[in-house]
Design brief:
Aspartate Aminotransferase, domain 2, 13% strand, alpha/beta, 13 helices, single chain, Aspartate Aminotransferase, domain 1, three-stranded antiparallel sheet
Length: 373
């Protein structure tokens, strides 16, 4: 009788999904990692026009349309001064597929992948699906990833380590010095640095820097997407960039599992990247205002919370039973241990929702905090 692969048996349904399914229909949802803003009109219009003119009927190039890849490399040049060849980019079905391609192309059975703990849930699961061995790395007190801790964890079996800035679930932003160190570690130890930069434009303090800027070898690949920056989560359009030899290996996986990213989404993404950026600036300003309200509310409730410098998450330390109490009162939050062992005792709160709902939720959380203390 045919059973199931050991790889898939190691992977369970995300703890985030379990929280959603347990909550009532009228609950205030502070668990969703999705901006509550519309996709910019010019991006949607570009997709509609491409559909109506039948430009989206055939497959695109496996790597994506030349125009989209040029828009991506123009963005890296404009925003970060990084020069990339359009041939060294693959458009993917969201950042999730991009991560999958990186790990499938670079991780052999039993090899280790280091990643932040608490960290994005896909790192562990995609490592297992690739046949690798997950190796979570604890964070500093401010919830950033310490390069020294990463370097100490590297062994002869390490294939890659993941850096995520701005980070999900913490909202932490790595410093330029950290990013320089991650690049050095990748170079000196000859291991791959996977830089997950999906939230790259949502920064409140400091600035986003990439280890790609500082590497002297090709041991850095970057994953990003339109999902968060342009409120395009449902469009499923991301990308991965790296050296040509790495891109060609990832393309071998992509062409068989996906063929090409959705053509309408590619036209929308091209317009989003190359068109007006006012909507992005307005969204980031709104998230910063919400962050400040959330920090004040959580601190007034007596909770300790590192100040998130980017993304749209806060991760306070919470008393035992706090998450259940909050969820029972009709506010969805995600227990920190859904993001790894070291997330226990924390909760992830998304402020990608309206201000009125946030203020109501903060009152409920304050009541819940008093109830469990």
């Amino acid at each position: 009788m045919t059973g199931f692969s050991s790889r898939v048996e190691q992977v369970s349904i995300s703890g985030i999904r379990e929280v959603f399914e347990a909550a009532g229909e009228d609950a205030i949802n502070l668990g969703l990692g999705q901006p509550d803003f519309p996709t910019p009109e010019h991006a949607s219009r570009a997709a509609v026009e491409a559909i109506e003119s039948h430009e989206t009927d055939p497959y695109t190039s496996n790597k994506g349309t030349r125009e989209l890849r040029e828009a991506i490399v123009d963005t890296y040049d404009r925003e970060y001064g990084i020069g990339i060849d359009p041939g060294d980019v693959i458009a993917t079905a969201g950042g999730s597929e991009a991560l999958h391609l990186v790990l499938e192309a670079h991780v052999d059975v039993g090899e280790e992948v280091l990643f932040p703990d608490p960290g994005f849930v896909s790192y562990d699961a995609l490592t297992r699906i690739a046949g690798g061995t997950p190796k979570p790395v604890p964070l500093r007190e401010d919830l950033t990833l310490d390069p020294a801790t990463v370097e100490e964890a590297i062994t002869d079996d390490t294939a890659a380590f993941v850096v995520n800035s701005p980070a999900n679930p913490t909202g932490a932003v790595q410093s330029e010095d950290d990013m320089r160190e991650f690049a050095r570690i990748a170079d000196e130890h000859d291991v791959l640095c996977v830089s997950d930069e999906v939230y790259e434009r949502i920064v409140f303090e400091g600035e986003h820097r990439s280890p790609l800027e500082f590497a002297s070898t090709d041991n850095v690949v970057v994953v990003s997407a339109c999902s968060k920056t342009y409120s395009m989560t449902g469009w499923r359009l991301g990308w991965v960039t790296g050296s040509n030899r790495r891109i060609e290996r990832m393309l071998r996986v992509h062409q068989y599992v996906q063929a090409c990213a959705s053509a309408p989404a590619q036209y929308a993404a091209e317009a989003a990247l190359s068109g007006p950026q006012d909507a992005v600036d307005e969204m980031v300003e709104a998230f910063e205002r919400r962050r400040d309200v959330v920090l004040d509310g959580l601190e007034d409730a007596g909770l300790d919370v590192p100040t998130p410098q980017g993304a749209f998450y806060a991760m306070p330390e919470v008393p035992e039973g706090w998450c259940d109490e909050v969820i029972d009162r009709g506010v969805i939050v995600v227990p920190g241990d859904a993001f790894g062992e070291h997330g226990e005792g924390y909760a992830r709160i998304s402020y990608a929702t309206g201000m009125d709902e946030l203020k109501e939720a903060l009152e409920i959380m304050a009541d819940a905090t008093r109830a469990v203390r």
